[in-house]
Design goal:
The structure is a homotetramer of 354-residue chains. The longest helix of chain A has 17 residues. Chain A has two domains: 162 residues, Rossmann fold, CATH 3.40.50.720; 177 residues, Dihydrodipicolinate Reductase, domain 2 (2-Layer Sandwich). With 354 residues, chain A is of the alpha/beta class. Helix content of chain A is 31%, strand content 22%. At the A-B interface, strand 7, strand 10, strand 11 and helix 13 of A face strand 7, strand 10, strand 11 and helix 13 of B.
Chain lengths: 354, 354, 354, 354
């Protein structure tokens, strides 16, 4: 099979590097274009990231020697079958719409279009059906390209476990406290001075995203629109001295209180489109429940199924709501580049890259 | 003024050391007796803790040269005006009652008697009036001595801020997630292997204490008994790589929803017995509210007013309950030895050491 | 090919677990026996390590269900083609000689026999020829089995780079400072209280090993004896808050001062028995030199070539000696279980397991 | 006594804040002027550092309300009796000479003038006599003001212990490896991503300073010039995840090998100008030797004598040189602002601020 040509926009930053690292042996996608700021343009990718390549393995050889282009080299970008965008919010705002208008298909990490009505924001196991918003988007706007986005990393540790229960028992109220890893802040990101013998009780913008994005993701698609879910979510987001892996302590009230066995069974049996179609980045067991009283732990569980599974533990009754548990996922794999790659695999399978 | 002679039981462990460190220049109390296991007996205190003194300043000179006695040296203990007990649960069970029976007054860190009906468990700013349970206890049991205890460290970051609101607005439901420091586990306590690039989602027994102890502390004293408060509390307790300072992310539902101004005023104005009587260990401002979006932080705020004040921040509306905030206190000062010293000061002032 | 049956002695500890983790898909060796203390005997391995399995992937299925035996179950041990010993020093002293006498072939991590005259202590790339001490040992003692050992983990980051230069230029004097990871202390090992916002300037026994073991390893085999090398080594060993990966800052004086190019070439070209025979655990490039000014770093370089390569950087002239550099290796892979597996592969290839 | 009016140049950065924090109750000096970049000018100091005040206690009240001026407000600066400069190298180059020419007396942290021939670089206990270079400087240049500087923080942990021995036994060769705290890099300084489960083997420019600055400091003043000491120093500088406190592992060769007793006595008895004149910031015992095998440790020893004493431990024979030891000092107190304050106290006492 001929692989699709894939571009990575903003390829020299932390998220861009993660795309390139994770796509190294992808069976369907091959990185053939990298863009970055004008400062890096004209260099090879290897030169552009010299001294600031933060991945645990060397730069893939095929990417190392690619020339770096800028966002203005539209012809180069148009030659890709699709692109992953790791653009910052400001640049996403500036470029993503005109790119889509120029025929480019974009799977984006940026938060700018997450609440745009006709842009799907997907966690593939939950709302792969929202992919059809792309048809609406293209029709609405007369675009040949499109924009699809992924949600914030802070959601990903608890959204799939919650969804597996929401389907059957109806989630009404959720109070969440997250313990988030430093890689979520990019590089250099957090100061070491702030995170030795310390934690931070606040991450700018994170609580708002954690509370609002789930409503669209859990929303029902109807007549080309997403009706947001009617769930109340309250989030406390903390930064902790962990490299990778966001944890969430979750208390939930249901419409219909499930039993312990029903919950464990719902998690155990949960499968969705990515598993049914054996997508390359799909975790086999999307929700792994661990019985040990001291799991999940970031360092031990973040890499479960190559960082794409969510690990849950400590299911116990809540004195105030119905049930509570702790959930964990790898924030830069499942929660960022890996999640977007899985989303692209869904879109590919559904024919959006033809 | 002649200082009271004070004993420290289990003086060589982490909590015992903290007592000795904090009492170094106390205006009323002087450590004149230390006990430890038979292994340490017959040595000076300095010899007994050699190579395992964990305080940030050297051993106070007057204590360094004290001989270490065992729990069997009852005459030595009886010569003290009162004792601080840092005994483990098992030893507390074995000794504290017979000691009290032998006339010894005990202020204890152990959890063994926290729910014993006629034993006061005090956070002095909240329930100093429970001291009168000592009269009940002595009458019930025919003791000349007594046992008074302090609650678990995990409560102390949020109980005083909660109490300041409970008085006026009635707290109904609370969901709490704690981020707790390693010093709470004693020494050697947590393994470094577990807390580098990691957090732990569980601390044995801590959630139960965090949920149950507040009900007695907030309870109303009536006819010599404490009627427990009718509050529902749910706690998630995590261990994080911080030396000292427990944080709590708190969501609260009230009987009567206060305004933001009412809350801030209640905290600002809160004073109680320790402040009114200018007790040596009383923080001047027991609840410090900080406006900065990224406070409280363990390393920056744990030492507020010598580690005895509670620092609160991030007051904001809760999407599910009424209000939420983050609170922090020093777990081995306010939450352990310092809190017990303040409790002893209350008891002294109320005449229980005469 | 039928795999060899391999036993792991003291299989439930940190080093034992690492053997089981690393041998999971070994092409030649299969773990078919595990021993532990009587406390664990009679359980399956999975039961015995429940709640204290510290590896980043689950217990290999074939080992999980093995019954745990004790060191007294000699028949079970004799049924193995050879065993890896992760015994503590005291147990190594008690059992290893009688085991070898009973025909058991032992590759040991214990320090007890490292300086026994007829026991080879091997870093396979350096002194694989010392394997022939086994013949001497068996002849001397009338044993059918044998004991072979591996050196301490603290050496492994710098010994191979030093050896590559020693051959050609003669190493005379070395001053080393190590920054060692906590996994080297086992589990629970170091207290988190000691390693948050802190480092430790001393690791018991480590400096002595770091100074003495190299002399035997670099020694020349002559008439069945090892003549120790005439090198002066001085070591400062520090513990730092790193999970895995020992670093060493090395200053060296040579017999014959090499040029920078000669050094880099010696490292680049260095190959030995493990590479020549393509042993499964042999790193392809045993010494990796990195040009970046800020490498090697523990988290980024410890896993080079599955944790079996040594990474070197910062080669620069020394103001006092001739040259200096920083070297790093994975202490529980290259420095412990992985190094011992490579040693066993050498012994297998040389026919010692027939 | 009327206190001297003191300015702090670049007062909003990490070093500037440390000056303000440490000078809070100084008996001789009072901060009456703060300068910062034009961005901060016109605000109060409290406003200018809002959200980025990193000291462990609140801003001193008298400084909080000072207006911030820029380096162009020369009249304001001239009204000070002297100033502490926390300027970066580039700004030091731009301003310090013209300021001195304008009559301003400057005690500077910047490295720009450390090797300027007629500028004293002082560790007061070692070379307070170099203060007289100020006379040479003023004469040479026709200045009324002057520039005096302090050396790099990385030296301070081992220079005083070395000097106490150098006087009597002659230091010839030194090989040093430092483990340096993150506060040395300012704020935000090091990325947390680089210092969780990691150390860094390189700090830009630090090794060069560590090797070169001691030669001037140990130099002999002769005919108005400093003859640099003839010592060979080689340094490996590492960054470790510690907030404050630089450690150094030191191996030394002497002209005349001292005994262990001679070394301990030299350290025990060492006193100099700051102690003889009871300067406010002088540590009473400048060199503290600790017998415990695991000291000095950053978190336990950095605050010795308010962070101004150097703690030494682990004195033992070196296999290559004569002796080796580990030394530690507080890098932002003794090694930066505190050291400069002590230097200013020397200059005051010697009459340079009249």
């Amino acid at each position: 099979m001929k692989k699709l040509n894939v571009g990575v926009l903003a390829a020299t930053g932390m998220v861009g590097q993660k795309y390139i690292h994770l796509l190294r042996d992808h069976p369907w996608f091959e990185v053939t274009l990298v863009t970055a700021s004008p400062r890096s343009a004209g260099q090879t990718y290897g030169q552009a990231v010299q001294g600031r390549w933060h991945m645990p393995a060397d730069i893939p050889k095929n990417v190392r020697d690619l020339m770096v282009y800028t966002m203005e080299d539209l012809d180069k970008v148009k030659a890709c079958d699709f692109v992953f965008s790791a653009l910052s919010g400001a640049l996403a705002k500036q470029y993503e719409e005109s790119y889509a208008n120029a025929g480019i298909r974009i799977v984006s990490n940026a938060s700018y279009h997450r609440h745009t009505e006709d842009v799907p924001m997907m966690i593939p196991e939950i709302n792969h059906e929202h992919a059809s918003l792309i048809d609406v988007q293209q029709k609405n706007r007369g675009w040949e390209g499109f924009i699809a986005v992924k949600p914030n990393c802070s959601l990903q540790s608890y959204m799939t476990p919650l969804y597996a229960l929401h389907e059957a028992f109806g989630v009404k109220e959720v109070i969440i406290t997250t313990l988030q890893a430093v890689s979520g802040a990019g590089y250099p990101g957090c100061s070491a001075f702030d995170l030795i013998d310390n934690t931070l009780p606040h991450i700018g913008g994170e609580e708002e995203k954690t509370e609002k994005e789930p409503l669209k993701i859990f929303g029902i698609l109807k007549d080309g629109k997403v009706e947001p879910a009617q769930i109340k979510i309250s989030a406390h987001c903390n930064r902790v001295p962990v490299i990778d892996g966001h944890s969430a302590c979750v208390s939930v009230r249901f419409e219909k209180r499930p039993t312990r066995e029903q919950i464990l069974e719902a998690w155990q049996d949960f499968r969705s489109y990515p598993q049914e179609h054996s997508l390359p980045f799909a975790p086999k067991q999307p929700i792994i429940y661990r019985d040990e009283s001291d799991r999940p732990q970031p360092r031990l569980d973040r890499d479960a199924d190559k960082g794409m599974a969510v690990t849950v533990g400590r299911l116990r009754e809540c004195n105030v709501f119905d049930w509570r548990f702790t959930a964990l996922s790898h924030n830069t794999v499942r929660g960022a580049a890996g999640g977007a790659i899985l989303e692209a695999e869904v879109l590919y399978k559904k024919g959006y890259f033809k």
